[in-house]
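Good day; I would like, with your permission, to put a structural problem before you. The record follows directly beneath this note:
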Amino acid sequence: MTQASGDQGSLCALYVDMGTTNTRVWLMNSDRTVASVSDTIGIRDAARDGGLGIRSGLGKLIGKARRAAEPCDPPEYIVAAGMIGSNLGLAEVPHLQPPTGIGELIAAAQWHHFPDVCDLPFLLVPGVRSGPANVGVTSIHQTDVMRGEETLCAGLVTLRIVVPPAVVLNLGSHWKAIQLDGDGRIQSSVTSLSGELFHAVQAHTVLAGSVPRERPQNLSPEWIEAGMAEQRRAGLARALFCTRLLDLARQGSPEDRLAFIVGAFIAPDLDGLLARGIIAPHMRVALVGHSAVSQAWQTALSRMQITATMISREQAETALLHAMQRILVGALPSLESALQRARANE
């Protein structure tokens, strides 16, 4: 291990981000991305097959990235964030309690070895759990968890892409509002399944024939607002069925009706965040996710006198990788002792 000194300028490593439905792998030499690959494997698959699919799928992705990078210097480490550190992933890394920033992530990151996946040492980044330690059905609303977004937020803050205090609204498979304090550390979060539900409605219900198969780059603000209004008037399930009725009445284009659905999902999430004080007027909000969905949220927030900044996909990727590099540099001094413990337990 020639880079145990933690010299970031000479690091050659693989970086993994595993989510619910997708996994991305980058091979970087210093700050230069040498290879980037992805596949539709995620922790949702592990829930079905006990994790065999993600282990083999991740091994293939890592191999693909290494082959694409030849003849560059071989990587020496793998840093992995996201659901890979959950109880359904390669190994469970305990959640941290807020406030959590880059320093806390470095201190709690864990070295592991998974020879059936790859011969390199893995550094798993912990997630964050907010709320009381003991919860029940009447207090569960105070609790939330994240894996992956904490690393993204650390990168956004350290690169000054997001200036704290702020709220980062991550619009992926899950829609998650993350509160950052004045020091840029995570205070708490609120998560919904709206991203997954939106995908399911678009692709796997009777509404699939009323909307486009792919997400357009832009959505009509008027149809977004109409969907929000219908949800507030009649509830989410009825608002979604109204999309079918609009199709039968030949009202709007497929893209318009998709905007209506997006609005129907935004309304309850936005109203809940406003009611809890997570989002409020004059608060800084950063939007991360698909451009059309982020634009829809930006439109909805502007009607509430809330200015939201859209973070591009490139900015988000740069921030995530920057944070993982920082965590690797900080954790390298503990690698040798971790390997010794692992050998002693074999």
Notes: The chain has two domains: 8-138+323-337, 193-306. Residues 1-7 have pLDDT under 50 and may be disordered.
